[in-house]
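Renewal narrative, Specific Aim 1. Our central claim is that a sequence can be written position by position from structural information alone. The example that follows is taken directly from our test logs and has not been curated for this report. It begins with the structure tokens describing the chain, in the order in which they were read.
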């Protein structure tokens, strides 16, 4: 039930500033999502026990899939409500930014973590839901690069999403945004070449994603004009900052070694930073149980191992992301935990 409760709570809080209270609209109420996610949830993790269910109790129930299924409709309702509010005569750029910050937290915290789970599913309908979430934040190519790039090259210089030792978050963010897009094009080009299909054709998934993403922007502009585009830009930036901050903290400094024959070390549990903090994992579809995920990417999130791993994060995801945003603090805490 906790996996279903958080998306509903976060979406409700993000929508608070879109509802008139006693005839008054206060857009800044939407920003309450930030102390909720960045303060209250970490405090809960301080006083609660870490996840430690035995493997035979980690099973998937219908409520787990229901929690995933509601994410895209929730985000569409939030975006639609924000755009509708911005069409009013009182619509301002401050409102657009406030709504963008709030919806961006929802898109990043619940949207992108749900999309990550969905694009790994074998069922095409689930994968389509995941792609739908990705295009809302202009990041459709993540589906290609993450599955066919990151999961193969993690822990190497070929992987854009593996942060190098000593690489600050902001340098990483600029690099990964560019390199992941380039990598996705290269992967898709190889796929089309192997199938003897043209790069610029209806078979190119990168073009599909680009068309859907452009459609989102056109619709936003059609509903709320330039304020709609400003809102979409802000929510996209926030969502991508959170998404790539998660990538950053998950693999920072954990590189696969090369033996004397030049062979690359296989991917192991020790190539991911794991997190078993209860609230942190309940609110991100167990994305913190990352070591097992890289060993078995198709394993549904409720079934991921809660066993302690070699590299455990000292705080939950909200705490680790906050540290990543202040590189000197991040280096001081994490570099001494890296293998020598």
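The sequence written for that structure reads:
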């Amino acid at each position: 039930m906790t996996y279903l409760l958080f998306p509903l709570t976060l979406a409700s809080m993000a929508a608070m500033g879109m509802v008139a209270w006693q005839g008054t609209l206060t857009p800044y109420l939407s920003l309450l999502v930030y102390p909720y996610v960045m303060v209250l949830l970490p405090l809960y993790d301080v006083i609660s026990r870490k996840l430690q269910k035995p493997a035979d109790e980690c099973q998937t129930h219908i409520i787990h899939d229901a929690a995933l299924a509601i994410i895209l409709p929730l985000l569409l309702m939030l975006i639609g409500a924000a755009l509708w509010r911005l069409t009013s005569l009182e619509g301002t750029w401050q409102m657009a930014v406030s709504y963008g910050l709030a919806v961006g937290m929802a898109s990043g915290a619940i949207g992108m973590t749900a999309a990550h789970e969905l694009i790994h599913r074998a069922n095409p309908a689930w994968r389509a839901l995941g792609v739908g979430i990705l295009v809302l934040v202009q990041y459709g190519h993540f589906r290609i690069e993450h599955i066919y790039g990151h999961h193969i090259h993690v822990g190497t210089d070929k992987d854009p999403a593996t942060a190098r030792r000593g690489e600050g978050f902001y340098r990483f963010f600029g690099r990964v945004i560019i390199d992941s897009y380039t990598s996705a094009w290269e992967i898709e080009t190889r796929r089309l070449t192997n199938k003897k299909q043209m790069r610029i054709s209806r078979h190119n998934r990168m073009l599909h994603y680009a068309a859907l993403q452009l459609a989102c922007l056109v619709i936003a502009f059609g509903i709320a004009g330039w304020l709609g585009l400003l809102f979409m830009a802000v929510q996209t930036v926030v969502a991508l900052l959170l998404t790539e901050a998660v990538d950053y903290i998950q693999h920072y400094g954990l590189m696969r070694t090369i033996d004397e024959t030049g062979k690359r070390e296989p991917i192991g549990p020790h190539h991911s930073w794991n997190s078993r903090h209860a609230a942190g994992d309940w609110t991100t579809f167990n994305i913190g149980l990352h070591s097992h995920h890289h060993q078995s990417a198709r394993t549904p999130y409720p079934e991921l191992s809660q066993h302690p791993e070699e590299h455990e994060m000292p705080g939950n995801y909200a705490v680790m992301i906050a540290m990543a945003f202040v590189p000197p603090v991040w280096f001081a805490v994490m570099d001494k935990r890296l293998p020598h």
